[in-house]
Amino acid sequence: MEMKLEVIVIPVADVDRAKSFYAGLGWRPDGDFVVDEGFRVVQFTPPGSLCSVIFGTGVTSAPPGSAQGLYLVVTDIEAARAELRDRGAEVSEVFHDVSGVFDRAGTAGRVTGPDPERRSYLSFASFSDPDGNGWVLQEITERFPGR
Known about the structure:
By secondary structure, this protein is α/β, with parallel strands linked by helices. The protein has helices spanning 15-24, 77-86; strands at 7-9, 28-36, 39-45, 52-57, 70-74, 95-97, 110-112, 123-128, 134-139. The chain is built from two helices and nine strands. Strand 3 and strand 4 (52-57) form a beta hairpin.
């Protein structure tokens, strides 16, 4: 049975501020549904993604900014970083992890610059939305076998 990740819920404090931020990144607005005063659902989809994000009022009890490690796969980390910066996001410098395996939570183990061998899966950059929800760009130029 296939199981496809379709939606990620991110907790925000100010729905309209979040809506403006994600629209400013160039993400596709899929809907803004106001059911009543305590229930509003806003959905956006990143360019090229099959998975969307939802935020709003009454959609999660998680504290605003608590979603971390939200990965966006890109084929060119420098170009993606530049585009996000041009659109107003504060994006970190490109980095790789000292382990040469995967990046870890927070900033521990970060080494400035892309993976020295420019291996797929190992170069990253990060940014946060206005609430502090943490996004990571991951450069993938060639998929592992079977992926």
